Amino acid sequence: MIPKYLVDIKLDELPVIEKDVIVIGAGIAGLFTALRASDRHSVLMITKKSLLDSNTRYAQGGIAAVISEDDSPAYHREDTLIAGAGLCSEDAVNVLVHEGPEGVNQLIEMGTQFDLENGEFALTKEGAHSQRRILHANGDATGYEIVRALSEKALSKPGIEVWDDHFVIDLVTNDGECVGALVQKPDGSRLLVRGKATILCSGGAGQLYRYTTNPEVATGDGIAMAYRAGAFIQDVEFVQFHPTSLCYPGAPRFLISEAVRGEGAVLRNTRGERFMERYHHQLELAPRDVVARAIISEMEATKSTFVYLDVTHESPDMVKHRFPNIYEFCLRYGLDLTTDWIPVAPAAHYMMGGVKTDLDGETNIKRLFACGEVSSTGVHGANRLASNSLSEAVVFGKRIVEAIDKLAEHAEIQPIIESSVPRSSVPIQAVVERRLKLQKIMVRYAGLQRDAKGLEKGLEELRRQLPIFQAMLTKREEFEFANMLTCALLTAESALQREESRGAHYREDFPERNDQAWRKHTVMHRVYGRTEERLTNV
């Protein structure tokens, strides 16, 4: 069994820092929530690298919200529910589609500059959206623009203190309440940060897979530490693979935004054939899981490691103007988006599940909240609709702060972390090798296509790494590996349990969706094990 804490330490021997609100992580969720909370509370933001290192920074497509007069919350709701494949919480989706436009306005008030055309927002369309409702910035650099604006504002706010290069090892709980976090400083020393509320904004777990669009920091820390603390972890079998990441020798798995297909790009196999009509009536704009599996099928049929994305029939001026960053990045590797077919393949992109929350972003542990990709609000169901993630972060970030405003002060209780497992002083060898092996196991056995035999084999190999929890961990990369192993086990176990195919979860041995048996959430708990929660809405 995974222990409650990664390290053994007596908290009464540590320095203590008091803050009203502790925000763990950066990105749009952490920055937006910290800014909103700082109006009335003292806020500490803790990031393991810097404010600019997050998945948000790499978000190209944009943020989805009902802005156009031709659009409506009802349309946005329907698109989200269809993409979510029967597992969305209708209440959570209603919150998102009705409160999303206000969230966009707040981002603008905080300094975000979205692209305009003739004085109006330049709205685009992405896969599985029925309307043009995606706001973007600098063409294809929406995430970077949001992080730029919010981080500048956060650094200028006297109510926000930022700790870069600090690692949160564990959440500290007492009698069912989160009272703060155990933090390791850059010099290796540790301290306890106590707060009235703690908000996980630590992003996803893309680094579980060898090929991912996520940055190095996306190691599932928030999900793992919440699991150890006793939070419910929901639906982590649903990992979204982005269909089109650059797949070219010497180049990283750079995201080629869905918006490129939204503006007319088509997919071709290595024989030059356009193939999406064989898989879905929405062609290249089908839901991401459908497009990703179609690409894998074509790769297998043509014995290739990629397919092509072709936007050469569109105006070169439009391509360069709309996708300046993608154009320039590809050019660095000798690929011209306006004249060349771009080799692409699926890569791990987004985790739909995460730490289970209510509509105010609070977990089953009092005073512990989760926002953004680390959370499972119920918005995304089994397959996230493109560009809903940034909207979710601002909508639920605002709700979290409103809930914190109403919190009473917690009692002054000093909990003690007691030794829960015998720790070995044997140094951990080659964490880098272990990490790579874990990533390969996940790609092979718990990737886009799964079956019972493979998942059982993957779990067997992952469990061989469990002795890590009995070792004396001291370095960031060791903590990260322990967190990745926790998330990998949860993902593989949840995927093995769900004997159907739905959304981003595809079982070759159970290829059909089964609403009668499986229209329910998979919920994991450190002590109670696996439970299920059937959806009441139809």
Model description:
By secondary structure, the protein is α+β, with helices and mostly antiparallel strands. The protein folds into three domains: 20-238 and 352-405, FAD/NAD(P)-binding domain (3-Layer(bba) Sandwich), CATH 3.50.50.60; 242-348, Succinate dehydrogenase/fumarate reductase flavoprotein, catalytic domain (Flavocytochrome C3, Chain A, domain 1), CATH 3.90.700.10; 431-518, Fumarate reductase/succinate dehydrogenase flavoprotein-like, C-terminal domain (Methane Monooxygenase Hydroxylase, Chain G, domain 1, Up-down Bundle), CATH 1.20.58. It has helices at 27-37, 73-83, 90-109, 142-156, 221-229, 258-262, 288-302, 316-322, 324-332, 388-405, 431-445, 452-463, 476-497, 515-518; strands at 16-24, 43-46, 63-64, 116-117, 120-121, 123-124, 134-135, 160-163, 167-174, 177-184, 190-200, 233-234, 239-246, 266-268, 307-310, 342-351, 354-356, 368-370, 375-376, 520-525, 529-534. The strands form five sheets. Strands 1, 2, 8, 9, 10, 11 and 18 form a seven-stranded mixed beta sheet that branches. The protein has a five-stranded mixed beta sheet with strand order 19-17-12-20-21. Strand 1 (16-24), helix 1 (27-37) and strand 2 form a beta-alpha-beta unit.
